[in-house]
Amino acid sequence: MSENLELLQQRADRQREKAEEANTVLQSVEARLSSATTASEEARRERKRTRSARQVAEQRLARLAKEEKKARTLAREADEDRADAENELAESRRTWEKRQAKLAAAEADVAAARAAQQVEASAAAGKQSRTARPRAAAARKATRKTGASTTAKSSSPRKAAAKRSTAKRTARRQS
């Protein structure tokens, strides 16, 4: 029986060793399961975080695309507005230059009419002074002979009227 007891003891020792080995394996598998569970939960959380980050990024991308489209439209409209303003400025400048030319012509016509009126008035005054003061007329003739220039060119009333009517026709055509 002692042999049986020893054999039983050996068998029990081997079973104990195998049980301890199985226990060690079980503990390592449990540790591995625990770390795998933790890693799995962490991976799920990371996946959820990255999915929500991707959605936020996609929303931001869509928003930025809309903003870019708006900015492109605004830039195009601003360029068109600038071109329109340049055209309008050029047109306004041409109109202003035409108006300035017409004003200059009108002022020249007024000055010519005033000069003609002054000439007529001086011619009329000259006729009166010739009859009243013959010496003044002789003095004027003397200055003409010496080469002194007169301030106004005398013309007949008929020529002055023709000049005025031409100036009026020109003014009407220009306006």
What layout of secondary structure does this protein have?
Elements: H1 2-132, H2 134-146, H3 157-174
Helix pairs in contact: 1-2, 1-3
Biased composition (Basic and acidic residues): 11-21, 60-79, 90-100
Biased composition (Basic residues): 160-175
Biased composition (Acidic residues): 80-89
Describe the fold and architecture.
This protein has 175 residues and is mainly alpha-helical. It has one domain. Helix content is 93%, strand content 0%. It is built from three helices and no strands. The chain has helices spanning 2-132, 134-146, 157-174. Helix 1 packs across helix 2 and helix 1 packs antiparallel against helix 3. The chain is rod-shaped, with a radius of gyration of 58 Å. It starts with a helix and ends with a helix. The mean pLDDT is 83. Residues 160-175 have a biased composition (Basic residues). Residues 80-89 have a biased composition (Acidic residues). Residues 1-175 are annotated as: Disordered. Residues 11-21, 60-79, 90-100 have a biased composition (Basic and acidic residues).
Structure summarized in a few sentences:
This protein is an all-alpha fold and 175 residues long. The protein is built from three helices and no strands. The chain is rod-shaped and about 180 Å long.
